[in-house]
Amino acid sequence: MRYFVTAIGTDSGKTITSAILVEALKADYWKPVQSGYPRDSETVADLVSFPVKIFPSSYEFAKPASPHDSAKAENKIIELAKITLPQTDNHLIIEGAGGILVPLNDQDFVIDIAQKFDLEIILVVNLYLGCINHTLLSVRELQRRNLKVKGIVFNGVSNPESERIILHHSGYQELLHIEKEALITPLIVQKYAEKIKNIL
Ligand SMILES: Nc1ncnc2c1ncn2[C@@H]1O[C@H](COP(=O)(O)OP(=O)(O)OP(=O)(O)O)[C@@H](O)[C@H]1O
Ligand SMILES: C[C@H](N)[C@H](N)CCCCCC(=O)O
Ligand SMILES: [Mg+2]
């Protein structure tokens, strides 16, 4: 299995979701493009219960910004052609940066990485007032591109009517709901990994 974890924005819970998926599948992990610190690869390694294989990012930048901007700050340009899928016989969890249409450069977007490698998508939706619109716009773009979507991970304080209308209009299934936790720990990650593993 290879899943590309994307979201309706940044700070949505992609990294915690990725750690849960890595734990559930005992998968390898790859963040193709990383902007800012802490590095998500390190966070995932700290959150899982086993020595996860982490593939190096194709691009890493210091500035915590949109990748096209982080690259520019270092006088670099991200080239989609130079992003190559790590080869592994194991399951692989791939984490995007920010949301779907976050620019890599003046032509390409984060979601083009998933499209290039024909990866199945897991969409993280963090629940806030405004998330319905942001989710349905993201869904429109995923559908316009004919991308295969495994389902949605809801993150945060439950809002049953927001969740229902998102599932209704998207046609996607709910894979998991992550509650607002006081602290994200390896034990919490294991708890959610148990819940999601049979649906992956
Ligand atoms: N359900 C939750 N309960 C408590 N804290 C959470 C929860 N989900 C996310 N967080 C915290 O919110 C912050 C942002 O989450 P996370 O790093 O997973 O976002 P992201 O979508 O991966 O962001 P990026 O676009 O930078 O990769 C982190 O500090 C994380 O620990
Ligand atoms: C630095 C941050 N944590 C992410 N890695 C990148 C978020 C880019 C968001 C760009 C945008 O949508 O305006
Ligand atoms: Mg992240």
3D architecture notes:
This protein is of the alpha/beta class and 200 residues long. It has a single domain, classed as P-loop containing nucleotide triphosphate hydrolases (Rossmann fold). Helices cover 35% and strands 20% of the residues. The protein is built from 7 helices and 9 strands. It has helices at 14-25, 40-47, 67-73, 110-116, 131-144, 160-170, 186-196, and strands at 2-7, 28-30, 33-35, 54-55, 59-61, 92-95, 120-126, 149-155, 174-178. The strands form 2 sheets. A 7-stranded parallel sheet has the order 4-2-6-1-7-8-9. A two-stranded parallel ribbon has the order 3-5. Helix 5 (131-144) links the parallel strand 7 and strand 8. Helix 5 (131-144) packs parallel to helix 6. The longest helix is centred in the C-terminal third of the chain and has 14 residues, at 131-144. The chain is globular, with a radius of gyration of 16 Å. The termini are close together. 41% of the residues are buried. The model has no long low-confidence stretch (mean pLDDT 98).
The kinds of small molecule bound in this structure are: adenosine-5'-triphosphate, 7,8-diamino-nonanoic acid, magnesium ion
Number of strands: 9
What is the 3D shape?
globular
* Average pLDDT over all residues: 98
The strand line-up of the biggest sheet is 4-2-6-1-7-8-9
SSE order, as H and E?
A: EHEEHEEHEHEHEHEH
Distance between the amino and carboxyl termini: 8 Å
Going by helix content, strand content and strand pairing, the class is: alpha/beta
Unreliable stretches, pLDDT < 50, 5 or more residues?
none
Q: Write out the CATH superfamily name.
A: P-loop containing nucleotide triphosphate hydrolases
Tally of domains: 1
Number of helices: 7
CA gyration radius, whole angstroms: 16 Å
Relative helix content: 25-40%
Mind describing the biggest β-sheet? 7 strands, parallel
